[in-house]
Amino acid sequence: MRNRPASLLIRLALPAALLVLAACAPAPIYKTTGNAVLATPAQVAQTPEHYSGNEVIWGGRIVHVTNFQDHSEIELLAYPLDSSQRPRANDSGNGRFIAVLQGYIEPLDYPAGALMTVDGKLNGTRAGQVGQADYLFPLVDVTQSHVWTAEEMQKGRSNVHFGLGVGVGIR
């Protein structure tokens, strides 16, 4: 019977600790609607007719920006998103897509290599090239976009790591 208070303490502490850890993660930045597509850009490129007009929330690493007379296009290498809709750039890529934004955007505000999340509607595809290879890019008419700062990418991520052995971590 002496272990009963310790057992109760463990049963209460574990859910409380999980709740605290979950509360540290930032909330998603965009709300999804009922017709949001969960497919990757690579999957959409294979059968774009199945997805046209549907909402997507995709993210990735900016490859480059091109400005036109009335709109701008950002090519992105897609990555899966975490629960806060931040691109997980340490995962493998999910294809490429082009984010179409109305008007002129300053390329310095969307630098190559930066991580970005967009919310918008699929609007067909466009043939292009990646290097010398032919490629079919899904087009996303962007309604909202966010370029992530290094500080935002670290929010809600624990610096506590569990493991066995000896190690030294320097940040």
Automatic annotation (TrEMBL):
Residues 1-22 form the signal peptide. Pfam families: Slp (PF03843). Keywords: Signal. The keyword Signal applies. It comes from the Bacteria. One of its GO terms (cellular component) is outer membrane. The keyword Transport does not apply. This is Starvation-inducible protein. It comes from Rhodanobacter lindaniclasticus. The lineage of its organism: Bacteria, Pseudomonadati, Pseudomonadota, Gammaproteobacteria, Lysobacterales.
